[in-house]
Amino acid sequence: MNESEFSEVYPPSEDSYLFLDALELDSGFLSELRPTLTLEVGSGSGVISAFFCSSISKPLFHICTDISLTACYASLRVLNVNVPSTSVTYDVINCSLATPLLPRLYKSVDLIMFNPPYVPTTSDEHKAASSTIVASWSGGRLGREVRLLCWLFGSVKSYKFVVPNLLAGIGIFLVFFR
Asked: What residue ranges are annotated as transmembrane (predicted)?
């Protein structure tokens, strides 16, 4: 990607590289898991998905989601350049978190990866961050106001417990908290 394309996409940063280190350290365990369906939520530049997919030798279908359409294009481009097409099929979906996938992928995702935004911002900044570049790093008050808790554990309105309902019986949820 060139610099102008990255201006609207969260570039790989320290947190991204720490996530890659964790994936590398867990590679033996993840290989034993033998995932067939994996998901990265908020894929941004796509570097985490590309690293993961390029390290898998078994057949796999991988999905990236991002609220930013520009980030979706970036993820697809990075995957196309870095992932051998022999064993991994992938797709990128423009949506918030992964809630739209829930009915179809109920209890079938083997691995969910999520590197949530964590930069402390005002509540107003956080609320205004929808599909803009701000959404990629805005963590709200104390950097922990990501809509993550409602997404993880459901909300009073939706009664959806998304992560537990997406994960397969022995599924793994890798999340980076700073």
From this structure: none
